Structures
1.
Amino acid sequence: DTLSVSENTSPPVRAVYLTAEILGLQLERIHMSLMNEDQLRPEFVKLNPQHTVPTLDDDGKIIWDSHAIMIYLVTKYSKDRSLYPEDPFTRAVIHQKQHFDSGLAFPAFIRIVVSFRNR
């Protein structure tokens, strides 16, 4: 399999790298400069209409959002189920921990940034 991921140094991208490393996967890293608006290039928007990173290309199967990518990698490439057990409650706890950033941390961060910006 050829796995490539659009990358920068954001925490979501690093989470995908750590997951791949735990699984022993090699990712082709394609650098994306958000400051240069690489994510808005037509060829990238064609792959990912949300133009976000990370974006994973697994032999033409395109997935974006770090949470979805990590679950996909663990489900497809893990040799056992220790990282993503079958038990629904255990999976729910994993999802709860995964989505801490989007459900609590990121909205708080945005409120702080907006408050400084509006000064």
Note: Residues 45 and 51 are 5 Å apart (CA to CA).
2.
Amino acid sequence: MYADAISDAIARACCLTAGDPEHPTVERCPAEHIVVEGNAERTVLEMCPDSLRISLDIRKADCLLRFICRRFCSFMMKRAEALCVLRRKPVHAHDISFLLTAAHTTAHAPAFYPKRIAAFAADINRAISEMKLEANARTRAVAAEFFSCLGC
């Protein structure tokens, strides 16, 4: 499954060494890339010896999903301090990005971040799909009420 592939790729890439926590190497110079693709999703892992940047592209089949995705990602990124590995701005052409440093990987068990980020990728797709279904249900209810008022 896509979430398992993300978790495995992050776990393989999480062998980080200590470096400058203020200026991770992945932010300053080109890094080795690994791409994990699902049906309509894509995850890019950029690896350097002291940091790992994970960028997610979320499935957006239509304009409503694009709108919901943009708003949801904006909501999450405004709370980046609470989620210490979430970046405030995603990498260009991606929806949301995470930055792991050696300090993050030593603070928790080795499997902590791969599992959390993979679960986040699965949950964000599920949440956006649920929001679309709720928006469509509300639209149908409003349209039905509107037409009942017209006497149709």
Note: The chain is about 50% helix and 15% strand.
